[in-house]
Amino acid sequence: MAEAATSQTQTQETKTGAGAQKAQTAVAPVGTVISTLEGTPNTGEFHFVIQGEGVKKGQFVQVQSPTGPVLGIVVEISRSNRYFERAESVAEYERLGVLTSQFPTAEWEYMVAAVRVQGVLVGAHLQRSSLPVAPGMEVHSAADAQLKTLLGLDEKGLDLGTLTHHTLPIKISLSRLLQKHLAILAMSGSGKSYLAGVLIEELLDRPAQNGRIAVVVIDNHGEYVGFKDSVYRSKVSVLDGAKMRIGLRHLSASQLAEWSSMSAVARRSLDAHVSELKKRVKETQNAEGLEDLIESVRGDASLNKKENVRGPLLEALEELRSLRVIGASDSFKPADALKPGQLTVIDLSGVDSLRKKQILVAHYGRKLFRQRKKGLIPPYCMVVEEAHNFARERAEKQNALAKGIIETLAREGRKFGASLCLISQRPVQLSTTALSQCNSNIILRITNPFDLKHIGESCEGIDSRMQDSITSLRVGEALILGEAVGAPVFVSVRKRRSQTVVRGESLEKIAQEFEEKSARKEDEIEAFL
């Protein structure tokens, strides 16, 4: 009986092994694992000789092991040929003619791929590899089903594009991508705003049963106003930042002092006037603006003998009035504007003053977060373009008015369903407090060595090889890493469905238009004379 049971068990194991081998060999292998003098294969890395030309840097591969498929990513590829190893021999034979015509050099050429191990797939779970793959084992391109498990993709997630060198759509869970905040980092012209547009499309297209959030975009250059003229027009509202106002009755003397160059003495004097104004508004139900506050300070008899206080106070208030940012009431009411699955664009392209931009972002950023904590508005994501201009690591107080709320959102927002998406072309200038709280990062092409170094120090999971790859990314290619995915991946960003607003023209066209305009003026003057 024991012998029969043993025989039956062996038969089952043979069938199981044969089935696994059959499934593994159903697709032609791309190479064979080799032993190297560098001590590979080991639990973290292995090399394999490539068969054919089908393997690319950044491609995911797998090798069968007793516990399951070992998954890894190709981090480098080298090409070798024994005939060309010694420079003096090549030089000598080349004097007699072309080396390739004298010897069968092509037969001795081969390529070796270096693979960084991501883990071993045991059932539906990825585990740390505890044993190296065996030399001589076949290497295959990783299957989509296994890559989904490795990367933690979600069929109901946000479709950002396809995995480079594969056909697998990269659909990332909403929570994994945004709940702990996202940073999109790239040099100018690399496609960061285009990628943000793809992300916004996914949020607007998301069905209610999958959970929807509202989207607010701080649009510095008017790059997102095109959503209003697209298939998403019914889900989009655009606010002109140049016309936006902040209601004086919602502000304190401290906030007014923070936004202007006001002394502590002036602020204490202003406090009484602001309190009186709010009391008057409450009694009369008549909204009052900054002009009313200025007249109140001018008519204050108690300041007649304190011109050293009234003068600077009025000067600070006049400075605020010149910004045309404070009015009788708020022009943006989040409780009315924010809806799940809808987009609100705050277009700041018509605002020249950086301080006015900072004030608008600081005030409405705080208001959004405050109302979200009270449950008055839906969960939302605030997308901040040119984030380094609003939350600069080193900046004077007057140029860092919005930094506080951005850092507060980065630290506390996830607990209340308030997410941040920071977009920057100068990550080295971006607040390290805010950037370090972004648990997911999407990096497009960057060549500035200071920015690359900063990214390497701030983003977990990025190594020197990846940093080198970032400099050679093409437009539309991105590296995703962090909380969003189980392993760093290179992605080809999908095409947008909405209209892309192109800001700026080529230098040639600008110069041509200027000369044509000048020539027309000269012709008009000559005709007049």
Q: What is the CATH homology-level superfamily of the largest domain?
A: P-loop containing nucleotide triphosphate hydrolases
Outline the low-pLDDT stretches.
1-25
Overall mean pLDDT: 87
- Largest pleated sheet: 11 strands, mixed
DSSP strand tally? 20
CATH class of the largest domain, named: Alpha Beta
Number of helices: 17
In order across it, which strands form the biggest sheet?
9-8-20-19-18-10-17-16-11-15-12
Write down the overall geometry. elongated
Instruction: Give the structural class.
Output: alpha/beta
The total domain count is: 3
Rg is 31 Å
Write the CATH architecture name of the largest domain. Answer: 3-Layer(aba) Sandwich
End-to-end separation: 120 Å
Helix proportion of residues, in percent? 25-40%
Which fold does the CATH topology of the largest domain refer to?
A: Rossmann fold
Beta fraction:
15-25%
Description:
37% of the residues lie in helices and 21% in strands. With 529 residues, the chain is of the alpha/beta class. The chain folds into three domains: 27-151, no CATH class; 169-243 and 332-493, 3-Layer(aba) Sandwich (Rossmann fold), CATH 3.40.50.300; 248-326, no CATH class. The strands form three sheets. Strands 9-8-20-19-18-10-17-16-11-15-12 form an eleven-stranded mixed β-sheet. A six-stranded antiparallel beta barrel has the order 1-2-5-4-3-7. A two-stranded parallel ribbon has the order 13-14. α8 crosses α10.
Key structural traits:
529 residues; six-stranded antiparallel barrel; disordered N terminus; 17 helices; alpha/beta; 20 strands; eleven-stranded mixed β-sheet; Rossmann fold
